[in-house]
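User: Can you predict the 3D structure for this chain?
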Amino acid sequence: MPPRSRRRRWARPGRQCAGENIDKVYIATGENFPDALAGAAPAARDGYPILLVKENNLPGATSMELNRLNPREIVVLGGPAAVSDAVYNKLKPYAGAISRMGGRTLYATAALISQQHYAPGVDRVYVTTGANFPDALSGVPVAGMQGAPILLVPKEGVPSSVATELRRLQPNSMTILGGEVAVPAEVERQLRAVLDGSS
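Assistant: Here is the predicted structure, written as structure tokens:
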């Protein structure tokens, strides 16, 4: 990819979907996918853009887009390992309020994003692997339209943060995105046990 195109991709999502003086902008790292994908569902539901940064750098294109959007609030998705405190501090002048949603792991971050955006009793929750992005990416548009959260799991089992969030959500249904290579049958069994109240 030519350098110019690579630089410009950091700001493109905001320019395509949002006007000026908006209520909120989400910020996530563009160097890894989980935080942005977990945040994409509530962002799509509410009509807010997600802009991308590097862990230790605020790209010029993103800075320009923030100036254009003039948001009232910035929400940074992910902990300091994803978006450093230095970048967080650089974002402060662009909005009246700024906050961070970041857990100790990418799975905890996705669960926290869900907790902050969805009330118990949602109609559906989507669960997919946190190890790769295609399955989650394919589910984001539908999740956004349905007002459904996206939770992430590893192959090894259901993290406690995800189990806790599933119990809180008490969804009417759960859809697992991806085959057993992405989400093994044992992980699916654990997920269903959580929802059934047997785990």
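The longest strand covers residues 24-29. Residues 84 and 115 are 23 Å apart (CA to CA).
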